[in-house]
Amino acid sequence: MSNRLAPHRWNSEDVRAHLLNSGDFVSTKVQSLWGGFAQFALRDNVLEVAVGLIVATAFTKLVNSLVSDIILPPISMLPCMDRNLDEKFLILKKGHDFNETLGYHTRKQALEDGALIWTYGNFLDEFMSFAGVGLSLYLIAIIYGIFSRGKGSMLQEKTKCQYCRKPVPPKAIRCNMCTSWLDGREDRETSALPVHD
């Protein structure tokens, strides 16, 4: 005799009832998940972050255009530059069809020939774009601080905690890193025992 359980035989009414019951369960779960997602996605903070990301993406494109279309072309006209900055490279290993007199004129030409190149110009181009974005954001923060007149400046002055040396806001009464009191409580005698001299 076998210890296995006999498989349950489903009739059409059992299957139909099971599907109807599980349909209600799935519908309830989907509605619960959708409600939770809508509550999360439509909060003020999430919408502010989404708008900020969209504006930041557009701003990054603007600054990249400023660097690559306005700033870099005059730099490329300097006597030491014979082509656009992003096309400057060093040949580390020559390709199959390398011509000693002509060399490679573009990165694409060198890569198609199988050469190993060091594209320092592209790195400098990207670095200048990064510096341009950072400087622009800093200037926007300064301008915002001038026009807001102290109503929540983007650039806040920081002081250092005297115990852990981490930056804290100047009006803080407790360090958020080491939790020390910054109003002098840490320096006062805290013992309940009398002090004997």
What is the structure about, briefly put?
The chain has 197 residues and is mostly helical. The chain has helices spanning 12-41, 44-76, 107-112, 120-148, and strands at 90-93, 116-118, 159-160, 167-168.
Annotation keywords:
two-stranded antiparallel sheet; 197 residues; 6% strand; two-stranded antiparallel ribbon; 4 strands; flat; mainly alpha
Structural class: mainly alpha
Largest sheet properties: 2 strands, antiparallel
Helix fraction by DSSP (H/I, runs of at least 4): 40-55%
Strands across the major sheet, in which order? 1-2
Our count of helices gives: 4
In terms of DSSP E residues, the strand content is 5-15%
What is the averaged pLDDT score? 77
* Span of the ends, CA to CA: 93 Å
* Spatial extent as radius of gyration: 33 Å
**Oligomeric category:** single chain
Number of strand segments: 4
Low-confidence stretches: none
Q: What string gives the helices and strands in order?
A: HHEHEHEE
Question: Which overall shape is indicated by the principal axes computed on the Cα atoms?
Answer: flat
